[in-house]
Amino acid sequence: MLNNLKPVSGSRKEKRRICRGLGSGLGKNGGSGSKGQNSRSGGGVRLGFEGGQLPLFRRLPKRGFKHHAHKEYATINLSTLNLFKENETVDLTVLVEKGIIKKEFLGLKVLGSGELKVNGLTVKANAFSASAKESIEKNGGKAENI
Q1: Exposed (0-12), middle (13-18) or buried (19+): which is 94, by Cβ within 10 Å?
Q2: pLDDT, tens digit (0-9, with 9 covering 90-100), for 39-76
Q3: Phi, psi of 100, rounded to the nearest 5 degrees
Q4: What is the DSSP string of 27-72?
């Protein structure tokens, strides 16, 4: 019946009524103690303030640098391309589907480590090392920049 509907227990929370008499449990000063900066309206100190002492974030040295124009590529070696068949096309989406690359970053870069044994591969990537490009083309394949 509609007259018996109640919210699930624990789903509703009553508002704390502070400074409404001693019987409320939060009477007189409303749980903020007596006098001082923290008992005032809008009182308290900013985050990280240590009473005028040099704060921790200024005591510790600055470390590191992140270049805003740095591009991070998902990398793959030539030896990994041996998993593919002849005259096949290899690109980032194919490598992710096969689980060879876990995360896509900003593109794909092919590095020249290892030996390529498959002929006629078409590799589409954002960047190639010089030795990787040479090795792919030597085996009758194409190294296409995206």
Answers
A1: middle
A2: 999 999 999 999 999 999 999 999 999 999 998 999 99
A3: -75, -40
A4: -TTTTS-SSSGGGSTT-S--TT--TTSPPHHHHSPP-----TT---
What pairs with residue 77 in β-bridges? 111
- If you count them, how many residues does the chain have? 146
119-130 pLDDT tens trace? 999 999 999 999
Residue in this structure with the two tokens 């085996």, named with its chain if needed? 139
Q: Alpha carbon 94 to chain centroid distance? A: 24
Q: What are the tens digits of pLDDT across the range 98-111?
A: 999 998 889 999 99
